[in-house]
Amino acid sequence: MKGILHKFSAIAVSGALTLGYSFSSFAGDVVEAPPQLSSLINKGVVKVVETFKHDSFTGWLVDSSGEHHLYWATEDNYIIAGPLIDKDSVNLTDKYLAEKKPVPDYNNVLADFEKEGLSISTHPDGGAEGVIYVFAEPFCGWCSRLHAGLEHHVESGLEVRWIPVSFLSGQSEGVIQYFLNSENPYKAMQEHEALRTARSDNYNVANPTAATRNMIQKNGDFMRRFGIAGTPGIVYKLNGKVRTSGYLPPEDLERFVSAIKAQ
Is the dihedral of CA 26, 29, 32, 34 positive or negative? Predict the structure, then answer.
């Protein structure tokens, strides 16, 4: 299951300004929300993080259950939800989200995981060049795609610490137990991926122990602490700060791994 990525299509909604909601921006100006946003704010659906100006638009960065979205308000009370493209073809929505979206401090979460979590390393004996962590479900299609995309990077020195979770199949816990029982858990994981590529109905499984079930549950708890809603979920450290990501297509993955290895 690919991690949920909210990507709104551009829409415009008009309305008269009635019973607006006022918000004091970081710059000290009092900005009154158009009624469309005011309704969401008053109902507690979204929380305002920041307002700011760009040309004639007012940007509203909001938090909705831990996910951040950016809405644009026009001077005549239209709301744009989705990409706002300027004359130079720059997606201003993506630009400002990248600049202004708060980055949670996950460093302590990763430190806790390294002490308490369960992972399967591609380089258990060390000697790797760069490391990333990936939450993955044994029967997740997008995880299989990421696994395939990472293989040549693993061969060239990248360490991937696969973090198994279970929620897609009744066989998932048994497959994970089989990995852990194997002399080489990562090789067992590779064999599982080969079976999935061959569309086999017969997977290697073992009876999951209570201890393994507890560790899988703990991994799920860590997944939520990292704010990851679906698999695959990537955790990595860049410039000393722990960050997260979902599935990365091949061209983005190449740049990402290069940045990790360059540290």
Answer: negative
4 part of a folded domain: no
Neighbour count for residue 65 (Cβ, 10 Å): 8
What does the alpha-carbon distance between residue 144 and residue 129 come to, in Å, rounded to a whole number?
22
Domain containing 52 equals 12-100
Residue 64 C-alpha from the chain's centroid: 15
Domains in the chain: how many in total? 2
User: Is the domain of 88 the same as that of 146?
Assistant: no
pTM higher than 0.70, yes or no? no
Task: Give the pairing type, strands 241-245 and 233-238.
Answer: antiparallel
Rounded to 5 degrees, what are φ and ψ at 216? -65, -40
Q: What CATH number should be reported for the domain holding residue 85?
A: 3.10.450.70
Distance CA 118, CA 6 (A): 29
**Residue where a domain terminates, one of 69, 85, 100:** 100
Predicted confidence (pLDDT) per residue in 90-149, tens digit:
999 988 988 888 878 899 999 999 999 999 999 999 889 999 999 999 999 999 999 999
E-strand stretches of 143-240: 159-164, 233-238
Q: What's the pLDDT tens digit per position in 20-63? A: 344 444 444 556 888 888 888 888 888 999 999 999 999 999 98
